[in-house]
Amino acid sequence: MATFEDLKQRIRETAEVIGDVSVDLYKRAEEKTKILARKAKLQAENASDRTALRRIYQEIGKAYYESHKLYPEPELEQSCTEVTTTLERIKERDAEIAELRAGDASGEDAEDADTFEDAGEDAEDETGE
After folding, report:
1. Which domain holds residue 45?
2. pLDDT per residue over 81-123, tens digit each?
3. Are residue 45 and residue 16 in the same domain, yes or no?
4. pLDDT tens across 16-69, in order?
5. DSSP 106
6. Same domain membership, residue 45 and residue 101
7. Cα distance between residue 18 and residue 13, in whole Å
8. Distant-in-sequence, close-in-space partners of 128: CB < 8 Å, separation ≥ 6
9. What angle do CA 101, 103, 108 make, to 5 degrees?
10. pTM here?
11. What radius of gyration do the chain's Cα atoms show?
12. Looking at the structure, do residues 120 and 99 belong to the same domain, yes or no?
């Protein structure tokens, strides 16, 4: 039969094994956390760069359109035509909004007028006018 000392020794050995396993698990978790944090940082940086890249492409496209809208290269002719058509539709709608605003003598929609003006400014920004 095992003595009390033998039992104490087994408990100590078991505690040491548990301690060693706990330290190992902690180190693994710490390493995994560092990897996940680095991965998240890299993904955030990539997302930021992709946003910047989209903006740059947009600026290039707008500059190309402005300089070639009358005589685009054949492979971009359809896209330039679509941009021109879209800009014309925006202009027509802006004109109609201005007419409706001018015809509204009651002033009931004075608060909405600011919202429409903001939207019109956005459209003007897009048209370059």
Report:
1. 1-68
2. 999 999 999 999 999 999 999 988 555 555 555 554 554 455 4
3. yes
4. 888 888 888 889 999 999 999 999 999 999 999 999 999 999 999 999 999 999
5. T
6. no
7. 9
8. 62, 66
9. 65
10. 0.53
11. 34
12. yes
